[in-house]
Write a structure and sequence with these properties.
Layout (H helix, E strand, L loop, with lengths): L2 H29 L9 E7 L5 E5 L2 E6 L3 E2 L3 E3 L3 E6 L2 E6 L5 E6 L3 E5 L9 E7 L5 E5 L4 E7 L4 E6 L3 E8 L6 E7 L5 E6 L4 E5 L7
Parallel strand pairs: 1-8, 10-16
Antiparallel strand pairs: 1-4, 1-5, 2-3, 2-6, 6-7, 8-9, 10-13, 11-12, 11-14, 14-15, 16-17
Amino acid sequence: MTFSARLLIVLFSVFLIACNEETQAGADEGLYAPKAPANAAFIRFVNVSDAAVTAKAGGKDYGTVAPLSASSYYFFTKDSADITAADKKVTQALKAGQYYTAILGDDLKIIEDTANINPAKATLALYNYSDSIITLKAKENTATIFNEVASGDHTAREINPVKVDLTLNITGNDTPMPIAPIIMERENHYGLVYNGEQAFVITAIVDTTK
């Protein structure tokens, strides 16, 4: 085989590899959602009421948020966003990299969420949307995670990614409320929401498709 023939074979092989990589890259783009811009802020809704609520933020339609559930986070790159649900409206200033939870109940309350900064751990948050002071415990109600969280308050902490059993203790009520065990995964954010009657668990889902 001449040198020219060998050179042509090499060049053709390089061409095929390049085409394959380009095709694979195009396929991968269809598998993964686009990344949010570096200056993005994120907003989600949590519905603590017993009725479905339609919600919007910054012109984005979140559709209907079911009772005792959370929407996905969507991202925004503006300095502020009008957050609306039913007949309630709040204009919220936005900070790059910050996550916000809009609690839907008798009013519309905006909370700045605590981000998970340790990739080896999970984050657990407690949202107290009740008139009572509450304490959250684990290990069959023996280990305190959050102590005496005030009415309308929110708190969070990083914990080891393990399966945890939780018990909610409401001031003035002698009967602790057991919570179904949560399998907590590293880097994930979990929230326990109490509305004065019921408690439910939410997880953080970020949707960058709109």
